[in-house]
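Figure 2 data, in text form.
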Amino acid sequence: MKYRRILILIMLALLNLQGAALAGLKVSPEMELLAGVLSQTSWMKTMGPRGKGNEYFRALQAFFADFKDHKAIAIAEELTKRGFTYDAPPAFICHLGPLPDLDLTYEYSDYLVGRAGSRQKLEEFRLALADLARVSNFLEFFAQWEPYLDKCLAPSREGFRENLLIDWLQEFFGWSAHDFHLIMAPSMFPGGGYGAHAVDDMGNTIVFQIIRENGFSETEPEFPTSTDLEMLTIHELGHSFVNPSLEAYPERVQRLNPLFWPVRDAMRGQAYPSVGIFLNEQVLRGVEVIAARELYGPDTAEKIAVSNEERGFYLTRFVVEKLEVYQANRDVYPTFQDFVPYLFDQLELYQKENSTWLERFFGKLLR
């Protein structure tokens, strides 16, 4: 088993040399097209900036104000009212190719189709966005702002250890993604990020991180830097490793509803409305603590653990303990996917020993 883990590490190193593309922090014109369209919809009521927004956002919003009657904006409003919000629109863009065509590069996931209501609706939106970009000459607008936006990324790029973070994630989880894309979104708010992934025709995983602007600046766009940016990167890229690993066991996820019950209101207030999403986030919070300890030291790890507990992730230290078992037994669990059944066993045992009869009763009512 020891040799099996060594072999996996060697394969990961080779993949890093030969396959995984590291794109660096960038602003995506496709994501900005989406942001400009959303700026004309009710999306702004909950996902707008505090105040007027940065000067680039104001220019983007004004640019698209002349196209309020376009079909792309009508579809965006329809989707927003349906609940196609938070991570769904950026994840949709991550499945598309570059402007001006916006071809469908990676087939839509079941998750995206479910959020939108149908594949047809996603295709209507894609074609409408491409048409809006064409009739508005959006790429010309973006080209005028691109040098300015690139300059705004300088504070975030300084000292940002992209390779180290990606290597850490791949070693920790035990497998490699094919490509990583780190997208900065100066017209999406508030501060924080989204994680998304797509699968190509060969079955390779393409991983995306979308970092939102802080939402307070009324001059240049501002993004996280230093440790804050690196820990956010661990979290958002980590979704592409954690989510599919846990979601491979939907029945086991549903059996843990009693663990979700006591924090359901706090989680729903953070847009984590189900036990599955809660568990994805909770396990990632544990991964964050371990990453912080190994990359920055125990003081940073403790601050992150406390912060996550204050947000309602009360299982953080329990999950960390179990992840330490994983780390200490990589000969038994070469990858995180191999470890997940044991993790579910331990969560079920915790639930049996700690959940009240009321939590178990009402948990069964959750869907």
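Caption note: Confidence is low (pLDDT under 50) at residues 6-19.
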